[in-house]
Structures are given as C-alpha cells and as structure tokens.
Amino acid sequence: MHSHSGQFCPGHAKDTLESIIQHAISIGYKTIGLTEHMPRTSVSDLYPEEFAEAPTPEAVLALQPPRHEAYLAEAIRLREKYSSQITILIGFEGEWIRPEDYSPLIQSLSGRADYFIGSLHHTLTIPIDYDRTMYLQAVCAAAKHRGLPVPSEGESSDEAEEALFEIYFDEQFSLLSTMRPKVIGHFDLIRLFSSSPGRNLTSWPGVWRRIERNLALIKSYDGWLECNTSALRKGLEEPYPKREIAEAWTRMGGKWTFSDDSHGIGQVATNYLRGLKYLQAIGVGEVWTFGRGEDGKLVERGVEIEEFRGSLRLGE
Prior knowledge:
GO molecular function: histidinol-phosphatase activity
Structural class: alpha/beta
Low-confidence stretches: none
Distance between the termini: 20 Å
Helix content: 40-55%
Radius of gyration: 19 Å
Order of helices and strands: HEHEHEEEHHEHEHHEHEEH
CATH superfamily: Metal-dependent hydrolases
CATH topology: TIM Barrel
Number of domains: 1
Pathway: Amino-acid biosynthesis; L-histidine biosynthesis; L-histidine from 5-phospho-alpha-D-ribose 1-diphosphate: step 8/9
Shape: globular
Enzyme class: hydrolase
Family: Belongs to the PHP hydrolase family. HisK subfamily.
Largest sheet: 6 strands, parallel
Keywords: Amino-acid biosynthesis, Histidine biosynthesis, Hydrolase
CATH architecture: Alpha-Beta Barrel
Number of strands: 10
Strand content: 15-25%
Mean pLDDT: 97
C-alpha cells in the first residue's frame, strides 16, 4: 500500500514503475498501491538529494507538478495493462509541512487518486527522516520553540527530544483531523534518528497522551494504520509503529494495512515475513486493502495474514 519508483522520485528511489510492478507480480503480489510523493510547494521543502536534478532549486521545484501528471498517466496505463495479473491502486503520499499550503493541494490531488497516505516527514518544517544532522536541527528548533535549553550543535538532550516528539504528534493530529487520511504512513517515523529509537514511549507521558489521542481519532473515522517494514531495513528493531503503539492500536480494534515503503525493486517486500510475524505476535489476524467492485468503485477488503503469507514467493 506504500511504494515509490525512481522514475517519479528521481534521486530518492530507483527503477521504473513498470519494472517494479513486474517484480511485484513475480513474487506473488495480488495488490500494489502506487504512492509517489506529492509535489512540494517551496524550495525549502526539498531534500538535498533532489537538487542535482536541475540547474537551480527553483527549476527542481517546477518539475514536480508535471511529473505528478506524468505519474498518474503512467499508473493508469499500467493498471490497465496488468489488470489480469494484479490490482493496481493509484495514490500518493502526502505532506503536512505547512498546513495552509498542503491542505488545499492534498484536496486537489485526492480527487484523482484512490487514496493518499497521511505522512509527516518534517517537524517545525525541518526534515526528521533524512539524516541525523537534520534531525538534530529539529531537536534544537523544538527546544527553542518550547523555551527549553537549546542543545549544542551536533548534540541532543532528553528534554528537547521529548519536546520534538510532542510537537511531531501534534502536527500529525493536525493532519489527521483536517484531512482524515485512510492510510496513516509510518506513524512514529520521528524515532528513526532519535537518540533512543527503541525507547518505550509510555515513559514520556506527554508523548504517550498524544499518541493515544491520535490513535483514537484514526479509529473514530475508520482509518488504517500501516505496518511499515522499512523501519527494519533502516536498522530499527521493530517496524513502524513500535510495539507499545501497535498493541494499543490493536486493543482499540483498529485496522491494519501493510507496506514495505519500497524505493525500488530491491526493497519490494523487504522484511515482509518479519513484519507479518510481528503483527501476529500482538494478536492481529488480518490486514486491509482495497479491491474493485463490479462497478469499478473501491471496496475495502480484509485479507487473512496466513493467506497473505501463503501468496508470497520470498527467500526470507
């Protein structure tokens, strides 16, 4: 339900969209959600790796809307071409860097998509998943925002990180309450470059209250939390979200979907068997996706984890 290609995310991913779909079919996928990144609205929102694509940052930014149009056209072509072999869903991954910019853009793009993934990659407008250096910039910004002692350059503090996590989940709440995305992407991405990615987040009461609040909101409108196995390939011990969050969501009766957040063929289905085992260990028996009814409209569909596992042809 969450994937990217080098064709439409140059500098960020690899391989063509069609080759990724062909590979997915070859390893047993029955459904794949295409979710290229939405266009950004400001040069400041671009990642450093994107600047090589054009002579100026402004030129890079200008390429993004027409590329999204090209992505939609190619996705529709591939959906028809491979319709007898796989269900292709056409979506995009959202941003919430500045709600006043991204809310209307998400709304305009959603009308032509099957769904979108509600994700945060920035906090206080600073990328928190690019590298440790940028993450620490966000830590310092959070400390300053809260009037706390600002850590020295290249350093962090428990107090400042706690503030950053709280702000991250507040910004996520803004996204959830405004846009109500059906799929919520890498719910706790904020922990990727943190000083203690495995920290039990119940130890930060303010953070945990926000997590429970956000989960309750997602449940209230029947959103789906993705079990995102990209955390495992990035060196974390558990997928997104980590266990105490996953257990809380499961106790609520919340629905799960499943993703590799792949950025090319080499990452398709990476750690899927580990991810499915993780879900089963906390009592999850099925994951959710979309199919199409006879009228062509999307219908929600639960898939038993054992059926899912049995369909995959993996060497893990």
